[in-house]
Amino acid sequence: MRISVIGCGHVGLVVAACLAKLENKVTVVDVDEEKVKWVNTKASPICEPGLKEILSQVNIEATSDYWQIKDSEIIFICVPTPSKEDGSISLEHIIIATEQIASILKEKKGYCVIVVKSTVVPGTAEEVVVPILESSGGEVGHDFGVCMTPEFLREGKGMYDFMNPARIIIGEYDKRSGDVLSSLYRSFNAPILRVNLKTAEMIKYASNAFLTTKVSFINEIGNICKQLGIDTYEVAKGMGLDERIGNRFLNAGIGFAGPCLPKDLKALIARARQIGYEPRILAEVLNLNDRQALKLIDLLKKHISVKGKSIGVLGLSFKPQADDVKDSMAITVIDTLLKEGALVKAYDPQAMPNFGKLFPQIEYVTSEEVLKCDAVLILTEWEDFELLDYKGKIVVDGRKISKAKEARIYEGICW
Ligand code: UGA
Questions:
Q1: Is the pTM of this model over 0.90?
Q2: Strand-pair partners of 25
Q3: Atom 18, ligand 1: which residue's CA is nearest?
Q4: CA-wise closest residue to 72 among 115, 37, 33, 40
Q5: Please, which residues have CB within 8 angstroms of residue 142's CB and are 6 or more apart in sequence?
Q6: Which of 89, 211, 223, 232 most suits a substitution to test ligand 1, by most atoms within 8 Å of the C-beta?
Q7: CA atoms 409, 216, 90, 173: torsion sign
């Protein structure tokens, strides 16, 4: 099929590369000329395992000119929906992209389906996207179709997740729109659930909210376990043997971070409040998460006063195998350490360049140098950290690195 993808971010590029690999003719559109250049030279502007290899095998055309996509049968909108101050999402990029699509719809011959893949709060496709598209003079359901299909791609595993989905959710304006989009997924071995547009939008938020609830839940159990001298990981293992509970996403630690989970949880809370409902569980999931990383510093202070001391930090990315530091727990922890007068030395296998843009004032060193500090905090579970020699050190661990238990003084956050 002839597919276009608007937005060359993480989601857009993974979707484009995978659909091209499945022998569709794919064009990507981005306002950022740099990204367009990267894709046209078959390089990847983002760090995602496997993406570069696929980009080098397939033919994707990148452009910043919307007219190039006028022959598309399906247009995916994959632009960002960043958080505003109050946690609600900004639809600025969605609106701009949709207006551009509307302008080509005016001239376009033949039916096509516009698919919202960006994470948007329930009601957005129907109340924002459809009216803008109809401003072209065309009529939804007649001249063009609209779908919303949420993405469930983990950063660092995006290519695998796209090709091996647990489920495909198709939110459809009408049957015709949904039929076109479903035909794109016919080779996938996954259940397809067809629902209306706002249900699809909600499935995305509810899924991420549930994942964050699991993490805050196990962190809460972990905080209790810590005081009772119980290892939360053994508790989670025991709980997880019940199939109704499952053992995934029950790793206690310093909390959930990254570009998606915190943002989506805040957006759902904000949307609920907008309609006059106070989401008590969700609000507490967020509160607990905001406090969790600071527990690490409380534990550190049991052993050492921070002021004037060198504190080493292992791990800056929001999770291993990523260079992304968006909403990373390292931000809260390092910010607090600096305010309390510590000298911070940090190491991360991939995220030091990105973190350096946020915190140019700290020292970026090797892992060996970090271990020479007065005390060490572990914030990300990189595999490499299992190979370090922690003997003789003070270590406070936020991510359960087994080898760190060899330290002279070892504290786990929830164990
Ligand atoms: C998350 C979801 O897992 C994806 O399904 C979803 O598609 C994506 O957000 C999105 O909305 O785009 P991602 O942000 O890549 O994916 O990261 P995760 O691997 O889910 O981890 C998120 C955070 O939770 C990390 O900081 C991680 O350390 C933390 N976490 C995860 C825990 O603290 N404990 C766990 O048991 C699992």
A1: yes
A2: 2
A3: 154
A4: 115
A5: none
A6: 211
A7: positive
State how far the Cα of 173 lies from the Cα of 108, in Å rounded to an integer.
20
Pocket of ligand 1 (CB under 6 A): 151-155, 208, 211, 215, 249-251, 253, 255-258, 260-261, 264, 318-319
- pLDDT tens string, the chain, 415 residues long: the values are 999 999 999 999 999 999 999 999 999 999 999 999 999 998 888 888 899 999 999 999 999 999 999 999 999 999 999 999 999 999 999 999 999 999 999 988 899 999 999 999 999 999 999 999 999 999 999 999 999 999 999 999 999 999 999 999 999 999 999 999 999 999 999 999 999 999 999 999 999 999 999 999 999 999 999 999 999 999 999 999 999 999 999 999 999 999 999 999 999 999 999 999 999 999 999 999 999 999 999 999 999 999 999 999 999 999 999 999 999 999 999 999 999 999 999 999 999 999 999 999 999 999 999 999 999 999 999 999 999 999 999 999 999 999 999 999 999 999 9
CA of 366 to the centre of ligand 1 (A): 27
Give the residue whose CA is nearest to atom 1 of ligand 1.
154
Neighbours of 137 (CB within 10 A): 9
